[in-house]
């Protein structure tokens, strides 16, 4: 009886904790918005200097046609870049894990891509590529490296005794890859995916800014630049809010994916017993 | 000792660091025996086990099997060494899957083996949901699922608490009686080796050598009674002093 009581008490405590996780930041956020709204109204700050949150929301609604189209463009670029980065990063990581020669010859170039700021590459890419493609390539470049390096680390971190065990049973390289190295790499890969997903959005926005300043592109970042030229400050804020929401959504999607895939087996996905 | 199943002949193993783990070691493993390799850490007993398994090649000397190296060798590490992403059932099934046997075809053998270690009701659990002792039983089940002629165990119970270790000792003796597998068991515990073994090879360290082999001529079945018997205490005393002599040789050398 007492054990059941304990368990239900624990589950209530657990649920309370989860509610607090959402409620606390939400309360802080709403209070900040309220303060902002009050400040703008009380001081009668003109909207071209600082629009009130209510005005930003109203702008987001009236400009929804333009903004949603731009959001769609940016999201499409971001997710295409993530897919390409996953395919490229995982394939290259597997190649590296199978052959030291491939790793030695190619890994330095991956590092070069990573350490060169994407904002510096973007103008050059815009010279050679269609703006849409250039934006996609920029987003890919920044998302690619965390996925590659994390997957490499994961593939190399299979427990040595398990590798010995596979050898003992005469497992082929393919069996070792599929049954041992890839599952062992999964938590690392998912960590890389979460970082890469956020970076892909940043890469897309940065590249859009570069492309937008040369008069092309129709993503959210372009709308921000355009609205800036027209001194349409409320729309700038509305577009910015949408970018933030997109980033949060990407993070939540990949966090949920992690929890789903690692489920019961990995430490990171399990609550600690108190 | 019965017919030899595998023998190490003049086996030397030197590591890249220059350490000689084993120096011209001769060791016979008789068919059906329970042989313990007993010694302090760094005496090369684990190395000897890995050489028998073929996980390591000797620098000099040979490992000779009576009928050629068997395709199936069971190996149990000091850690359970389970795949954390796979359920108990799939962990035990691994050797069969690596042989290309389908899950359906493997089912009967996996279940029979889980029954041997009394884990049928935990088939669907993940390793981290089990206690240390249960994980080790899964590891033993995996090593036995192909019914290998020989089972190699590298200090399998060293990390477990006393109560769990005693229970697993009895489980192991029961499995040995049921399956008749030849077992080579690495340990640094005098009491464990005397309780389990039919023969003990006492190692000395740096470089690793066998100083003495001791027959424990107590016919089974062994249980709590044997652990409390005068004979057990005598064997422990003899083995313990042999181990002490082995250590003494090291310091005088």
How are the secondary structure elements laid out?
The complex is a heterodimer of chains A (274) and B (253).
Chain A: H1 2-43, H2 53-62, H3 64-98, H4 100-115, H5 118-128, H6 131-156, H7 160-168, H8 173-213, H9 220-229, H10 233-262
Chain B: E1 4-14, E2 20-30, E3 34-38, H1 45-53, E4 60-65, E5 73-76, H2 88-98, H3 103-116, H4 132-144, E6 150-154, H5 162-179, E7 182-187, H6 190-196, E8 199-204, E9 209-215, H7 224-227, H8 230-252
Parallel strand pairs in B: 3-7, 3-8, 5-6, 6-7
Antiparallel strand pairs in B: 1-2, 1-4, 8-9
Helix pairs in contact in B: 2-3, 2-4, 3-4, 6-8
Structure overview:
The complex is a heterodimer of chains A (274) and B (253). By secondary structure, chain A is mostly helical. In chain A, 84% of the residues lie in helices and 0% in strands. Chain A contains ten helices and no strands. In chain A, helix 2 packs across helix 10 and helix 3 (64-98) runs antiparallel to helix 4. The radius of gyration of chain A is 24 Å and the shape is flat. The mean pLDDT of chain A is 87. Chain B has 253 residues and is an alpha/beta fold. Chain B has eight helices and nine strands. In chain B, strands 5-6-7-3-8-9 form a six-stranded mixed sheet, with helices on both faces. Chain B has a three-stranded antiparallel sheet with strand order 2-1-4, with helices on one face. In chain B, helix 5 (162-179) links the parallel strand 6 (150-154) and strand 7. Chain B is globular and about 55 Å long. The relative contact order of chain B is 0.18. The mean pLDDT of chain B is 86. Chain A binds chain B through residues 159, 161-162, 164-171, 175, 179-180, 183-184, 186, 264-267, 270, and chain B through 53-55, 71, 73, 75, 77, 79, 81, 83-86, 94-95, 97-99, 126-129.
